[in-house]
Amino acid sequence: MKQDATKTRRHVVSRLARMARGLRRKVADEQGAAAIEMAIILPFLLILLLGSVEMFLMSMASRKAARVTNTVGDLVAQAPGKLTKTAIAKYYKAAQYILGKLPKENLGLTIYVYGKNSKGKLHLRWKHHLGNASCQSKPPKLNASHKAAMQDGNDLVFTFGCYRYPVQIGKMVFGNHTFTLNSQVVLRPRQQLTLACKDC
Fold first, then answer.
1. Does the chain have fewer CB atoms within 10 Å around its N or its C terminus?
2. Which pTM was predicted?
3. pLDDT in tens, 15-40
4. Whether 189 contacts 154, CB under 8 Å
5. What are phi and psi of 28, to 5 degrees?
6. What is the number of alpha carbons within 13 Å of residue 67 lying toward its C-beta?
């Protein structure tokens, strides 16, 4: 009877030891598989994170550059008399504070003012460029809605802004690339029908 009990005990202990070894192997295998999965997935997660942060920063820069364009265009359109390059440069300098900590040398603005000549034909009255970045290199083409906005014999102010955004933290995703962010605003003069610039 004692031998049977001892045999049974040994058998149970042996089975428990085998089960424990099997469990340890299974846990080790699962840990190894989890480590391999993590090694495969982590780079993609990192790329996704860096890309998302970079897109957010780029979106913020685009919004700020568009606000600068709108602000300068609005100040030019509100000018009460003849403009000068100095006055426009002051508007530009003041509006640059909107950029905050973004590099101001990456910004550029081009202003085109269209009007009607004595024969009623549309023509470019003057243009002026500010900043280092090149924006609209060719004068804009006037479409039907632009012509309709000039039906009172008024001028039309086109302000084109551009910002060269260098990739900051997402170089792994986008490379060492610079994106050009463009914005545009079209306004009628507020204080008078025509808008002249003495030295533009």
1. N
2. 0.75
3. 656 665 665 665 555 556 666 777 78
4. yes
5. -65, -40
6. 13
